[in-house]
Amino acid sequence: xxxxxxxxxxxxDLIRWVHEGWLTADGAGAIRxxxxxxxxxxxxxxxxxxxxxxxIASSVAAFVAANWEAIPRLVKLAMILAAIxxxxxxxxxxxxxxxxxxADAATTCGVLIFGxxxxxxxxxxxLPEDWPGGAMLLAIGSLAAAFLMRSNGALxxxxxxxxAWSGGRWDEAAGRTHYGFFALYLPALWIxxxxxxxxxxxxxxxxxxxxxxTAPGVLLQHxxxxxxxxxxxxxxxxxxxxxxxxLARGGPAVLTACxxxxxxGLVVAxxxxxxxxxxxxxxxxxxxxxFVFYAYAAAVPLSVLLGAVARERRFAWPLxxxxxxxxxxxxxxxxxxxxxxxxxxxVASLILLSATxxxxxxxxxxxxxxxxxxxxxxxxxxxILLWQTIGTLLDQxxxxxxxxxxxxxxxxxxxxxxxxxxxxxxxxx
Amino acid sequence: xxxxxSADAVAAKVPPLWxxxxxxxxxxxxxxxxxxxxxxxxxxxxxxxxxxxxxDPRDLFRGDYVVFGYPISVVDTGAGAGxxxxxxxxxxxxxxxxxxxxxxxxxxxxxxxxxxxxxxxAGRVVSTSACALDDAGRFDCSGDRRRLRIAxxxxxxxxxxxxxxxxxxxxxxRIEVVVAVSSSGEAAIKRLLIDGKPLYAEPPY
Lengths: 429, 205
Prior knowledge:
The complex is a heterodimer.
Chain A: H1 4-20, H2 25-38, H3 44-66, H4 73-96, H5 100-124, H6 131-148, H7 152-172, H8 181-193, H9 198-214, H10 217-222, H11 227-249, H12 253-256, H13 258-277, H14 290-309, H15 313-334, H16 341-365, H17 368-387, H18 393-412, H19 414-422
Helix pairs in contact in A: 1-2, 3-5, 4-5, 5-6, 5-7, 6-7, 6-8, 7-8, 7-9, 8-9, 11-13, 11-14, 11-15, 13-15, 13-16, 13-17, 14-15, 15-16, 16-17
Chain B: H1 2-5, H2 7-12, H3 16-44, E1 46-51, E2 53-54, E3 65-69, E4 74-76, E5 89-96, E6 102-108, E7 119-127, E8 132-133, E9 139-140, E10 147-151, E11 156-158, H4 164-169, E12 175-181, E13 187-194, E14 197-201
Antiparallel strand pairs in B: 1-12, 2-3, 3-11, 4-10, 5-6, 5-7, 7-10, 8-9, 12-13, 13-14
């Protein structure tokens, strides 16, 4: 996969390498040609085609919305059916001509027109109340098109539509967990597993996160409880562990898309936990409801598994440590020591340690996302600590002094630490 | 092994033309089936008459529509009916009042065992603590609150852009809706009448 940033870096490197005499100008030219050939399938026409298709589909949707009576509704329906047929015919022709991207754009357009058709039928028979039902039909239609036409655009629509359907049903049922979600999610995931498209991977992960977010719905809808924060934290840890496992063991590309979303969730949840333990009103334990136990029952083994099976230990072990430390934060809240100084010091230390572990893991494994997440977690945590002090400013100063000294000691010993972690099996600790 | 179960590998076994034709036919057939199902209710369903309460106008994506409330939108569960949950499907057995308008006679979770004459309409529980509408169309929130608010899928009616306001401002006592109910309880609006005169009539197609 060649990204624009890679090509820019390569170009800069090629100039430098030729200048240093490590590479001949001919060699550099050959590399440039090779890269250009690999990137020849640049999708500009397909991209413009996709935008054009989206505009046409929007035009159909607005036409339906206008409810224009000059055209009988059966004619409108026939026009929509014909437009669907034309879209798939174009998709077939483009696929045959070798333009996968163009075929994808045409299929996406066809699926969107199908959505407009559903809206028209809803209008003909006065069915706007059941929009989740419409979203479900759109999800089924786009799934079929995504599978048959191997379209990424249709699959992306399917993921969005199935979330709308599930969310709508969840809302109608006043927050009861909607298990029907999986009837469409699992086939969609199966199709996504065979795709190399990152948008599809991220949507697959986000749809799973959406369902996990709505699962403890009765609590979400009626009253906020800090147990939800622990639940979110454990889910984020699961996502990070899954993403890191996929990176470390070469797992499915879909799973690697879990990593950034898990890291975002982790940073947000930990910083909220830190801000609230320093606040006299908010520093109270959440209710540990069943879903928190489920999430922990998945998060702890996954984190341990990551440390146990990853090929590169100097990356996996600090990450496992960071995740387990993060999981300990809600445990501090559930202990009796929440309000007092020990609870504050414990939470702040756990979060700073966790951030440091993430930075170490990211730096050692060369994974910039983890490094960035660790740095952001660390930086924001320091800001929160400066804003809402642990105790008096003197206590705060003492805490920073101790934490800083500990970090400096770690940095000083880092070379030896890395050397040991890189050593033969069994020596690492 | 991974490849053999991969979705794209499975799809690739079928020639592209067939796949394109199958996709288009599937989506087209889906829309036609939906139309046929609704048309079936309109042409074969049992007609019932309902008094209305218009509520509010406009759907951003689909032009104007009017929202109706009906006396059968709020149903008393009575004692011993068990606790109903929001979102579940219920079946309401309808009777007629002196003027021939439908009234809710009973509500149950399962299809009720009724005689040939009674009409049963299926709905979804929207809320379990609704205020009842009395005969004058006012909300009555007194008494115990074991009343269900039920949606039957006949709560909205699309009108050409700009005409929603006119219906909305009409006195609700003058508006009457004729609904077709299929043998499985699905309902569709068939006619809209003002002062007994048809304003809109829905053809099946």
